[in-house]
Amino acid sequence: MTDLSSIIGSVNTGSTTQSSSQTLSADMNTFLTMLTTQLQYQDPLDPMDASEYTSQLVQYSNVEQAIQTNKKLDNLLNLSIYNLGVQAASYVGKTVQALGDMMPLDGGVSKATYTLSKNVQECTITVKDTDGNVVYTEKGETAAGAHDFVWDGKNSAGEQMPDGVYQIVVDTKVASGETAANVTTTIFGRVTGVASDESGIYIGLADSVTSTLDYILTIRDENYWNDLIDSIKKEEGEGGETPGEGGETPEEVLSKLV
Fold first, then answer.
1. Measured between alpha carbons, how far is 258 from 116 in angstroms, rounded to an integer?
2. CA-CA distance, 83 to 202, in Å (whole number)?
């Protein structure tokens, strides 16, 4: 799904910044029309004052320079967008951590983090589908700081949910009279595509969630997500070596993925 054609097209056409150049060009054409008309109809016995004529030529020069400067700035901006797109393309296949609360369920696994600004009395993590229906809840950590949340994709009844987009909602409760805690969530996902438009570069996660480059916090290698899936399977006893027989415990595997 990697799409760099729109990025390259933006550079070739300058589509993101044409309006400002067109405005300046229109201003220059208007100025030249007015100047030539003024020269054409001036009184031969009382010609235009030389200083005034010189002043108008200087204005013309300033407008022309502004147009050239604007074109160069447009080229630099388009080149910057192209470079960002090429950089983003290198993320494909890797796992990124991004700000947000819409997490992809990919291969039956989702991962997110939630950061509490202060200690709380209670913390509840809720997973909702795209229709807002609650599919899973559990108790979260209550200490201030960042905490991991890994979901095996099963709802509260133990049924496996289909891969797709799910929202993580973290609710907290503090003591009476205290100010509420601030909660920041991040999500993880495998990069499956890159695209762009006039607003910037977009990263596709598991073909279901879209993020922008400025929301990307960390990048993990290509094996990260598969290792995460394997750790969940081991924890559920669906494969791999069992603890006590030479294999690592799920907790040990998960600790390496943090």
1. 17
2. 13
Task: Enumerate helices (H) and strands (E) in the chain, giving the number of each.
Answer: 5, 11
Residue whose entry in the numeric block shows the structure tokens 């899936």: 229
What type of residue is 82? Answer: Y
Residue 60 backbone phi and psi in degrees, to 5: -60, -45
Domain borders along the chain are: 5-89, 95-220, 223-258
For residues 197 and 173, what is the distance between their CA atoms, to the nearest angstrom?
Answer: 41
Q: Using a pLDDT cut of 90, give the percent of the chain over it.
A: 45
Tell me whether strands 183-197 and 164-173 are parallel, antiparallel or unpaired.
unpaired
**215 token code pair:** 């929301």
What are the CA-CA distances from residue 73 to residues 23, 67, 83 (Å)? 15, 10, 15
Contact 24, 17 (CB under 8 A): no
DSSP state, 46? B
What 8-state DSSP symbol labels residue 141?
-
Residue showing tokens 């993580």: 168
Domain 95-220 of CATH type 3.30.300.130: no
- In this structure, what token pair is assigned to residue 242? 């069992």
Q: What is the mean pLDDT of residues 125-135?
A: 96
Question: Residue 145: enclosing H or E segment and its boundaries?
Answer: strand 145-151
Most confident of the following: 49-53, 67-71, 124-128: 124-128
Q: Which residues contact 237 (CB under 8 A, 6 or more apart)?
A: none
Q: pLDDT by residue (tens digit) across 182-216? A: 999 999 999 998 887 777 788 899 988 989 888 99
- In this structure, the strands spanning 145-151 and 110-116 are antiparallel
Structure-block tokens of residue 186: 């991040």
Find out whether 31 and 58 touch, Cβ atoms under 8 Å: no
